[in-house]
Fold these 4 entries.
Entry 1:
Amino acid sequence: MSENQAAYPIATMCRLLGVSSSGYYGWAKRAPSRRARTDAALSEEIRAAHAASHGTYGAPRIHVELAVKGICVGRKRVARLMSTAGLAGTTRRRFVTTTVKDGGRQAPDLVARNFTTDRPNRLWVADITYIPTWAGFLYLAVVLDVCSRRIVGWSMATTLATQLVVDALNMALTTRRPKDVIHHSDQGSQYTSIAFGERCREAGVRPSMGSVGDAYDNAMCESFFATLECELLDRHRFKTQAEARIAIFEFIEGFYNPRRRHSSIGYLSPIDYERQIATNPDAHQPAVVLAAVKDKPFGRPQSGAVLDRRCARRPHHCAGRDGRMAPPGAKQKNDPQQEDNMPSDQIP
């Protein structure tokens, strides 16, 4: 009505809309309510937290950010104000695999989807993804510590050569100096290569590999790549590979490791979580398993394994292996051979 009062009388518009003129003038002169004032102040805090997360946080993480600042507010109220302000978290893109298997000898699966550990440097997961640029693909290999979700090693290259994963492992070994750590990956040709096997043997690393064509066997590393794609790659278009390298470095070392909050570790960042463990080791709780534990052909899941809620509610009856079709000629993960009894020093 205030926008059209130059063309139409206020009394006429009030009569047509079924409101009283006195009510309209009272509303126009009335100061904003206390609720409206607090919503406006909260909206400013939400905008600041959303901007600090590079526009990636949704309502749950924004709610934690406000709680850390001492602002007590409900998560649904945060979601409502974000919706009103046109703010939203990022969403994920479709999965594209970069795994290429060759005839190299695979290592036994020492993890069996049990992505839990109570201390850093006991279990690492690793994988490779691609970063599209106008100048061609850039490939990224990472090594992630299961305990804290921290990226402890990473490497980038323009080709899927074995040196890509060796460099990522070397960075992790240099920065962490572990003892008898398990390095879990898929059966890509880079991880089954002789050069990578020799480097693991020299450093005392125990290699472990999941089955063929099953992303759930390396679910935790796939989860990091989904986060990277959702919060960085889908929101930027890189003209050059040098531009992509800088963006990946800033995301991992400037945001993900020191600042990004993870729901599975109490909404702490990986570095803060490791500091908490170092300060109070008894307060540590194992992280949530990301995927259902696979039923073995010869019995039940291993003791101590954690099932996700869907698996706990009702069993699945699948026609194939885990409901997925393996490539022709692929071996079953638990083929009755001496894989699980193979010493790590016999793996190339």
Entry 2:
Amino acid sequence: MNFVSNLLLFRGFSCFVVNSSRVRYSRFHMIDIHCHILPGLDDGADTLDTACAMAEMAIADGITHVIATPHASQNHTFVPELVKQRRDEIQARLEGKLILATGCDFHLSFENLQDIRENPSRYTLNQKNYLLVEFADYSIPPLLDQALHNLQLSGLRPIITHPERNPLIRAQPERLYRWLRQGCYAQVTAQSLLGKFGPSALEMTHQWLAEGAIHFFASDGHNLTTRPMKLKEAYDMIAKSHGDETAQALFVENPLAAFEGRPLPCVPELPEELGRDESAPPLPKRRKRFWFF
């Protein structure tokens, strides 16, 4: 049974066909590609009961598919077999109410970069070709651009996680623009749009929305209180300020494509002056590219 069939069977979703290979889902059926729901693996859920309560919170909020992404870092050892075991424990309790896949929150350590060359599916979202990449708040290595490029050369599609919460990226947003022009994508935390990570993260989120520099919103849920697995309130804010199609793109269409390992259907062009090499010749004039479905 394919992904769409599963989605229609689980909870009786309403939808309509856009073309022979695309389906658009009604507005509160969202997909969360970044969370820390698996218990006892990192700084996320502490017990199986907490994890299941987080899952129920997500279901009640309108989330239908989740990718559990524990940290793969020096502080948190990433063991795929254990990740799968914890995922299966949660899925067994949910009785088909939520589709739960796995991935990781990938830190660009030397050891991780060596291993992913040999075992990419250990780390990628739903074992496809998208990879969440997290940077430290205190340092962005000078060779990071090359590391991202090497990941792309190996067939992976890096997604920069919560750049709006990183003070170094906020101070030098041109670095993010350059990574996006290089072919990376950006995922912002839904709670940032609600002001839960402070005014600087909120301001940058609004700026990047206006510039077309965001491709996903996700919960990055860690618990039931301060870091919940909720997306609906942020979806409503985007739908009101930028239109329902943009909200669908950021909470449904692009996350679905990442879940399935397909090219993103909704990628706005950055303004020409952002992230370009100043020594490069001017870009030829092109027609403006809109969100499309």
Entry 3:
Amino acid sequence: MASALRLLTAALVAAAFFGAIEPAWAVIGQPAPWELGMQQAATPVMADIVWFNDFLLWIITGIVILVLALLVTVIMRFNVKANPVSARTTHNTVIELIWTVIPVMILVLIAVPSFRLMFFQLDTPPADLTVKATGKQWFWTYSYPDNGNFEFDSLLACNSDRTKCQSPRLLAVDNEMVVPVNKVVRVQTIGADVIHEFAVPSFGVRIDAIPGRLNEAWFKATHEGVYYGQCAQLCGRDHAFMPIAIRVVSEKAFADWVKQAKQKYADNDAEPLTVAAAAPRHGK
């Protein structure tokens, strides 16, 4: 009994220690070394996802502690040495009601915020901007139908043999998707060849890009900066080399970028653009 309690105490101390130092390691918009939890939220949807994850963690922790305590109690009090003559009790109405009603209540407690979050993710509010993301082997093409209907390709920012890559490695791209801060952005996804998946962890966005089918997601970035994601489907040989980079800037910087983009990409020119008065790379 004492050893089990010591083990449980050590586990709780370790969890508290790593939970306390994790924010110091976290980097906004991209994964960080030794990061244990999710990326920091940059949208209301992701903030709700993080809250729901932490909420479930408390419930799961309570269940694990309760089950462990019951197991230890049974082992220590109801073994053959402590009870050489076993009891003949076969039914206990109160206990059977408890272990039926309490799990149902826990499931209801989980279901209510779960359904709320699901509807929040899927119910797209009136959009301020629409961007169409087309997954190709193996890069993304972004179209801006609300801003002149220009489009451009976004490829991994590495040399041909990938020995030299821009930072962050295997996440940086030559042409970033640019969106304004605090605006609802509707992302329409489709695949040009095979199934891809548009996934940006800090935005709480993950949606399939399927050939012949137009899917839709949305986000509202609340901080300026650059946020990274990747294709989350096993889409082929270079699946690991088609990242997503979204630069969130002020409304003025976005308007200036759109003016440049209309000229640069009028003939589908893939030359990289610069964003005037761009935000810091990590939203700070």
Entry 4:
Amino acid sequence: MQSIENFSEATLTSLAGAMALFFAAIPRVLGFLVILIAGWFVASLIAKAAAALLRAIKFNDLAQRAGFTGFVHKMGVNSDSAGFIAGLAKWFIRLIVLVVAFDALGLPAVSDVLRQLLLWLPNLAVAMIVLVIAGLAANALGNLVRGATAQGGFSNPELLGTIARVAVWTFAFIVAVNQVGIASTLVNTIVMATVGSFALAFGLAFGLGGRDTAAELLQRWKRSADEAKPKLKAAAESASQQAGATMARAGQSGTATPRSGDLGGKQPLPSGGYGRG
């Protein structure tokens, strides 16, 4: 009978402890639910306001010119660029809400993991901004190179413009990967190896099989430079003459003889002075 009584007392003690823990956890659970629901609602409102603001300042047009809209559509997102950015902001706020809610619930391990994710998300945002700016810069530089090479009489302006655009995108991709911190060492090694391979291949091809072509190319450049010398000299002389004529006109206008009306009513005297008229 003694063992039965001890077992009953142990069971009652365990149940009492479990009920105490349960009732002590009720305020934490209620606080967790209140923070979660309120944060979810506020995050949705902020996302709607951010999307409306981005559409008002024509962010979608900027994203279209930068190529960001195509990137968003390839990801399978059914929203526009403004809605995509607003959705990212919404989930960023919701992650903050989850950190606060789990702290209130008393689960610091979960909140620490979410906190590390929050510290990483700004790097992702910076990487996306770099890619958007790179899209604008790549398109602008590609158009500039294509127009300049076409005006200069190059045979493949489209190819040169594409090379300039790809170079800008490659540099931006390296910067974005380093900012995010995902396999940055591997990406840098691959890019350096690729550039070195292209340089080595070009040097070998040019040195082994392109000596005659290089000599012909240098001779062509020399003839073009000799033909351009008289034109450059004539342009320089024309610019110098125009500058001299402009300075002469400015000097004449600055030393013009004053009229009698500009002397304040004074008349020149034979001795060189002025008297009242």
